[in-house]
Specification:
- It is built from six helices and five strands, in the order E-H-E-H-H-E-H-E-H-E-H.
- Helix 4 links the parallel strand 3 and strand 4.
């Protein structure tokens, strides 16, 4: 069973709906999914919980087989972009699920595949085919 790290912003109702949908899709396909949204702790001293969440997420990225990134477009979330770059730098393949309109070449060129949420339902995580982004980029 592949371990998937699901990188995504989850700061408002719309973003939460997208990430919840992706969690469901991936789990229904039989994958083990680590979603920071489900593992975040925000109690007590801000420095302590921030460091705790950072360490937990970094360890989960190191432990995953693949990262799925929900990308809401250019400047959607600096944390999600950081997670994508960290995975790429550590040789972990990234599957970018394009949600927003505007895009950045650094995100798409680092992704093994650039797909839609609908395509996430059938993407072949065994073969990990390359899918090049063909939309507009900045």
């Amino acid at each position: 069973m592949k371990k998937i790290y699901l990188a995504s912003p989850f700061f408002n109702d719309e973003e939460n709906a997208w990430v919840e949908n992706a969690e469901k899709i991936l789990r229904n396909r039989g994958f083990e999914v680590y979603s920071p949204r489900e593992n975040e702790i925000r109690e007590g001293n801000i420095q302590k919980w921030a460091q705790f969440n950072f360490n937990a997420d970094v360890n989960a990225i190191r432990d995953c087989d693949v990262m799925v990134m929900l990308y809401h477009g250019n400047y959607s979330d600096s944390g999600t972009a950081w997670e994508c770059g960290y995975a790429y730098a550590n040789g972990i393949p990234v599957v970018c699920v394009q949600i927003g309109d505007l895009s950045n070449l650094m995100v798409h060129c680092s992704a093994r595949a650039n797909i839609t949420l609908e395509e996430l339902k059938t993407y072949d995580f065994s073969k990990m085919p390359k899918v090049i982004y063909t939309g507009n980029m900045t």
